[in-house]
Design brief:
Mean pLDDT: 79
Largest sheet: none
Shape: elongated
Helix content: 55-70%
Distance between the termini: 33 Å
CATH superfamily of the largest domain: RNA polymerase sigma factor, region 2, helix turn helix motif
CATH architecture of the largest domain: Orthogonal Bundle
Order of helices and strands: HHHHHHHHHH
Length: 199
């Protein structure tokens, strides 16, 4: 039997880690480190909203951790199981317009705000070139303020500081306009996105 110390968890497969985490919760952290960005990209490209993507990623892992003892490998592996939970979370978000935080509350996980640096890093995971091909048709649904903010941020690639200066508003307001615009586009665009693992 392998030494179940934190230092060698990285060598274990996803299914092994999930089962091991029943008695060794620290092992689940390796699963998070291994697949967090993949899930973050999945949510970011479907919601077009960094804050929502971060929240959905956190809730997916919280739900996975809380239900890890019920895990059964049905041929999809650990990543397929995670994406099954992710699809459920995403469907709930689009149905209710809010991120379900029950698993995080149950585990006592503190709320964590997305920093400006995290926000921009998550935006980089969104394939804006793909969004751009469909954005013209949906652009008319946005308010003028949202169109201006999205044009500056997404099309011109300006920083939020530059967007705020151009629109004569605060960076927080600029970020909110971009976020609201992307959220509305996400609901109206029917973009063919790459299939996620386990599907």
């Amino acid at each position: 039997m392998r030494d179940p110390s934190r230092g060698v968890y990285e060598d274990w497969g996803d299914v092994e880690l999930i089962v091991l985490s029943w008695d060794e919760p620290d092992a689940f952290g390796v699963l998070f480190e291994r697949h967090a960005e993949e899930l973050l990209r999945y949510f970011a490209r479907r919601t077009l909203d960094p804050e929502v993507a971060a929240e959905l990623t956190a809730e997916t892992f919280a739900q996975a951790f809380a239900s890890r003892r019920r895990f059964r490998d049905r041929g999809l592996g650990g990543v397929g199981w995670l994406f099954g939970i992710a699809r459920h979370q995403l469907a709930r978000f689009f149905r209710t317009g809010a991120v379900d935080a029950r698993a995080r509350r149950r585990l006592g996980m503190p709320e964590r705000e997305v920093s400006a640096e995290d926000y921009e890093r998550i935006e980089e995971l969104i394939d804006f070139a793909q969004v751009g091909r469909a954005i013209g048709q949906a652009f008319t649904l946005l308010s003028e303020e949202q169109r201006e903010a999205l044009t500056l941020r997404v099309i011109d690639g300006r920083s939020y500081r530059e967007v705020a200066e151009a629109l004569r508003c605060t960076e927080e307001t600029a970020r909110a306009r971009v976020s609201r615009g992307l959220k509305r586009l996400a609901r109206s665009l029917d973009m063919p996105l790459e299939a996620e693992p386990g599907r």
